[in-house]
Amino acid sequence: MRRITRIATVGVASAALALSATACGGKSSSDAGDNQDKAAIAYDIGGRGDQSFNDAAYAGLEKAEKDLGVTGKEAEPSEGEGDPDKVQRLTELARAGNNPVIGVGFAYAPAIAEVAPKFPKTTFGLIDDTSKTGKNIANLVFNEEQGSYLAGVAAAKVTKSNTVGFIGGVETPLIKKFEAGFVQGVKDTKKNVNVKVQYLTQPPDFGGFAKPDLGKAAAEGQIDAGADVIYAAAGLAGSGSIEAAAKAKKWAIGVDSDQYNQKGLAAYKEYILTSVTKDVSDSVYNLIKSVKDGKPQSGEVRYGLDKDGVGLATSNPAFTKMADVTAAVNKAKADIIAGKITVKTAP
Q1: How far is CA 318 from its chain centroid?
Q2: How many CB atoms lie within 10 A of CB 140?
Q3: What burial class does residue 30 get, using C-beta atoms within 10 Å of its C-beta: 0-12 exposed, 13-18 middle, 19+ buried?
Q4: Residue 277: left if φ>0, alpha if ψ -120 to 50, beta else—which one?
Q5: Collapsed DSSP state (helix, strand, coil) of residue 258
Q6: Residue 317 belongs to what H/E stretch?
Q7: How do beta strands 71-75 and 2-4 pair?
Q8: What does each C-alpha distance from 80 to 7, 46, 114, 129, 239 come to in angstroms?
Q9: How far is residue 296 CA from its own chain's centroid?
């Protein structure tokens, strides 16, 4: 697998494309149409190694390499980048013959909308966004609010202080889905539990997804205010909140990946009660496979509780031993799938 690290943006567009295509080891548009199966992912803020969202996408690409024989390429974001940087990155990957090209995160929506029409034979995957559509765009989206509702049920069942915390990386509509589901799950389970909500940054500052120190400080503040369960939907910054919770011997709830099993968080796993999982890995793998099979996905491809596209991890033995907690979670899951519970998508 080829990994591309982005450091800076070259000012002149044509020169940038030529230089970075060489750095990618990619091919020019004239010879991009070879018979080699190649797929690429362009990472969201935080990049690979975030123990969460981006790592889940990488797992899907890695599986496709092993199972499908494709050659994978990865492209990292640069700090403080804008849409032109993303347009350049996606263009390079498409020109190099990668198909599909997958933008990991809603921040890629404007760039994919610009680049996809220029490469009509290439499928573009857009994770977590449906605002930009096209014949060759697959919108890979999830019912995050449903998984977060289950986390809220668990948090309400285990809290002893009747105070829990939610930390959002950046206050966007997507992350507010996590908040909405979590708060509803808490309140439906135990009305008198206080939910403290905090966002690390506001758009256009997306640093709240990338800075563990911000997550750590926010979690410490919530714990000082009485919270004994912290749920963070904050990408790499969420690792800081997990660290803070573990050091205070309070429960943390992970997000996107099963963070109990993330090597980078092994020192804190005892206190990772569970994680709200999104099957980003399978969404990436399934899109790559659809292209390889000659039947590329397009339009909205949704993953919810009914398809195990979102859920609550059960890796921590301490969690699975809590019979009353897991029973409440399982009942809530069944009720959501049956339509007895409708989970809000906004607070």
Answers
A1: 25
A2: 28
A3: exposed
A4: beta
A5: coil
A6: helix 317-320
A7: parallel
A8: 11, 11, 20, 21, 21
A9: 22
* DSSP string computed for 187-202: HHH-TT-EEEEEEEE-
Nearest to 109 by CA among 124, 93, 94, 88: 124
321 CA to centre of own chain: 28
CB 276 within 8 A of CB 148: yes
Q: Given this model, what pLDDT does residue 142 score? A: 97
Paired tokens of 73: 């390429």
- pLDDT tens figures, 109-144: 999 999 999 999 999 999 999 999 999 999 999 999
28-44 confidence digits (pLDDT tens): 333 344 457 999 999 98
Tokens coding 83: 């849409």
* Amino acid at site 288: I
| Residue 340 reports pLDDT greater than 50 | yes
Query: Quick check: helix, strand or coil at residue 7?
Result: coil
Q: Are strands 38-42 and 101-103 parallel, antiparallel or unpaired?
A: parallel
For residues 60 and 41, give the distance between their C-alpha atoms in angstroms, rounded to a whole number: 10
Two structure tokens written together for 13: 């567009």
User: Distance between CA atoms of 248 and 21, rounded to whole angstroms?
Assistant: 48
| pLDDT value at residue 15 | 32
Look up residue 35 and give its DSSP letter: S
CA-based torsion, 13, 15, 19, 24: positive or negative: positive
Q: What is residue 16's three-state secondary structure?
A: helix
